[in-house]
Structures are given as structure tokens and as C-alpha cells.
Design a protein that fits this description.
Strand content: 15-25%
Strand order of the largest sheet: 11-10-9-8-14-6-15-18-17
Number of strands: 18
Mean pLDDT: 94
Helix content: 25-40%
CATH architecture of the largest domain: 3-Layer(aba) Sandwich
Shape: globular
Radius of gyration: 22 Å
Order of helices and strands: HEEHEHEHEHHEEHEHEHEHEEEHEHEEEE
Low-confidence stretches: none
Number of helices: 12
CATH topology of the largest domain: Dihydrofolate Reductase, subunit A
């Protein structure tokens, strides 16, 4: 099952709206087939592994990191394919909460006389499927907020100089993180200040994540890198009702997709924004600022993971802070996260934190 989980992780950021699943088929102690959900979500892991196994699947055991699907989509159900293959036993990590599956896949297998064991490596599977599970059960994608700061939490000098606080190894690690997410999100302030590409670079051919900009007025640079690359990958601009028709027309013509989001208290309703992105099928979002936008996400309790790269330099109080104002006057009101991972990345330190579960 550990091998199936590792195969499934290859699909993170590549297969939305489907879950990233791995499958390993074992016959007489030997692996005869293995597969993972392919880019774009098709074919599924089980189909890839069964094709590789061929007739050797008969009487074998299939290890699958999520309950096989039980519904007809663009392809027949994987549960039916496993039955037709003559598989004797199926071992899964967890049940799929998708209402179209939700135990039906396991039931199809059992009704066909196949032995089914589930719950193996369940904690690891839930961790890998966190984004998919959250979209299905809560209607929004998992959101990771990334910050790269000095030791004292600054993202730039007082004059705005920020390249580069962290080193090349950290920057490469950020691109690897981008590749494992379905979308990269920034606020309008960052888009105006940096005109970022928001792409995965230096890792070879990958499915590029959706580039997401949250800009209430759609007042973005109209002659920069974003505009010139709008047709070279998915660019979704999330704006409020007051965005002018001229700006809307410009970005439509450039090739961007426009998504209108309701406004609350004079700002984009970020809860509604994530709900829309979940309805579009996105499961994992990687947010890279800026500070005011990141603070708004924290205030709205929408951040599920924090990923911080800390460099060994100090910029002092006059440096620009990594987060905007949160309006916190009591420690008990501060958003809390629990440490999940810490490691050296070149000359910097990466620390990853998870949302503290509510009681």
C-alpha cells in the first residue's frame, strides 16, 4: 500500500477534479501491474495497472489508495473493471466520500465475491487526499499559504527590495510545491507590483497550474507578462461587480477567464471565492501573497496549511512585514497551526504547519 500511495502522489496538482490515486497489482508475491491517475484525471490508476497486468491480474491482489469509483463518467467504473479482470482481493486505504461512490465501489467488489480489506494506511491516504476530501465534504479546495521571509518575518526592505531573500534551493522547492497544486493564487496588489508569471519552471514538462488573481476592480497591468501569456495557460481573474466593462473586455480578448465574485464589506468575499474554485473542480490552491491578501485569508479562517521559508538575515522593523494587519489584540484570537515538518533547504529553513483541528 505504501507503493500505491507513493504512485498516487505523482498526480497531485495534475489530475483535478479527480483524486490522485495509485494502484499496485500483486500476483504470487510479484508486482505485475502498477498505475497512477494520469494527467487530466484519465485514465484512472486501476485502469493503467490492469492494462499493464493483463491476464496476470486473475487471482491477484490489487492495492488501491482510494475506493475504486462506482459511477459511469467518460470511462466505465473502476470497480467493474476490477471485477471483470478476475482480481481475487482488493485492499484500499479509505472509502471515497464522493456521493457517486461512498461505499458503492466496495459493495460492487464484495457482491462479485472479491475479498475487500479497507483502512490500510488510512491516515497517510487522508493526508494525501486532503484537497480532494475537502472539496467533496466542505465545497472548497485546501489552501496552502506560502511565505518567504527574513528571520524577523520581513518580505522586503523598506525600499521594496526583495530579490532574493531566500536562496536558489528554496526557490526551486517553491516550484516543486507549485507543481503539486491545482492553482496558484495571488492578490491584485502582488499582481500589480510584481507582474508574476505564476508558472512552474525548471522541472521539465508538467501540467501547469491554473493562475488565479483576486482583484476586486480588475485593475491589473494590461501590458505585462500576465497579459502576454494569458493564452499560454489557464488564467482566471476573480473580480467584483464593479470591474469596468472596458477592463473585462480587455482581459477576455487577451484570453483570460473572468469570474465575478460577490463583495462583502468592500472586499471580495473570499469564502465565496474558494467555494467557486471548488465548484470548478480545484482541490489544492497555493497562495503566494501578498501580505494584505494573505492576512484576509487568515482572518476568514480559510488557510489550511502554512509553508514558510525562513532565511538567515534580519531586515528590522523598517522592513515590509510578511502579513498585513490582522487586528488581533489577544493571543487567544490568533489563528493557530501545528508543526508538521521542518527541514533545511539549502541555506534556508522550511517549516510547514497544519491548521489546528477545532474541537
Amino acid at each position: 500500500m505504501a507503493h500505491a500511495l507513493a504512485l498516487g502522489r505523482r498526480g497531485l496538482g495534475q489530475v483535478w477534479p479527480n483524486p490522485a490515486v495509485g494502484c499496485v497489482i500483486v500476483s504470487q508475491g510479484r508486482i505485475v501491474g502498477r498505475g497512477s491517475t494520469q494527467p487530466g484525471g484519465r485514465p484512472h490508476a486501476e485502469a493503467v495497472a490492469l492494462e499493464q497486468a493483463g491476464p496476470r491480474a486473475r487471482g491477484a491482489t490489487a492495492y488501491v489508495s482510494l475506493e475504486p469509483c462506482a459511477h459511469h463518467g467518460r470511462t466505465p467504473p473502476c470497480a467493474d473493471a476490477l471485477v471483470a479482470s478476475g482480481i481475487a482481493r482488493v485492499v484500499t486505504s479509505m472509502e471515497d466520500p464522493d456521493p457517486r461512490v461512498a461505499g458503492r465501489g466496495h459493495r460492487i467488489l464484495r457482491d462479485a465475491g472479491i475479498e475487500v480489506t479497507t483502512g490500510i494506511c488510512a491516515a497517510e491516504a487522508r493526508r494525501d487526499q486532503a484537497g480532494f476530501l475537502q472539496r467533496i465534504m466542505q465545497g472548497r479546495p485546501m489552501l496552502t499559504l506560502k511565505l518567504a521571509t527574513s528571520f524577523d518575518g520581513r518580505i522586503a526592505t523598506a525600499s521594496g527590495e526583495s530579490r532574493w531573500i531566500t536562496g536558489p534551493d528554496a526557490r526551486r522547492a517553491v516550484h516543486a510545491m507549485r507543481a503539486r497544486h491545482d492553482g496558484i493564487l495571488v492578490g491584485g496588489g502582488t499582481a500589480r507590483a510584481d507582474d508574476p508569471e505564476l508558472t512552474v519552471r525548471g522541472l521539465g514538462p508538467v501540467c501547469q497550474p491554473v493562475r488565479l488573481i483576486a482583484s476586486r476592480k480588475l485593475d491589473l497591468p494590461e501590458a505585462g507578462r500576465l497579459a502576454s501569456s494569458a493564452r499560454q495557460g489557464k488564467l482566471w481573474l476573480c473580480h467584483g461587480p464593479e470591474a469596468t466593462e472596458r477592463r473585462r473586455a480587455h482581459w477576455r480578448e487577451a484570453g483570460a477567464r473572468l469570474i465575478e465574485i460577490p463583495v462583502r464589506h468592500g472586499q471580495l468575499d473570499l469564502t465565496a471565492l474558494l467555494a467557486v474554485l471548488g465548484a470548478e473542480g480545484l482541490t489544492r490552491i497555493f497562495c503566494e501573497g501578498g501580505g494584505t491578501f494573505a492576512a484576509s485569508l487568515l482572518q476568514a479562517d480559510l488557510v489550511d496549511r502554512l509553508a514558510g521559508f525562513t532565511a538567515g538575515l534580519a531586515l528590522g522593523a523598517e522592513g515590509r512585514p510578511g502579513l498585513g494587519a490582522l487586528g488581533i489584540d489577544r493571543l487567544v484570537a490568533a489563528p493557530r497551526f501545528e508543526l508538521d515538518e521542518t527541514r533545511a533547504v539549502g541555506g534556508d529553513v522550511l517549516h510547514v504547519w497544519r491548521r489546528v483541528p477545532t474541537a
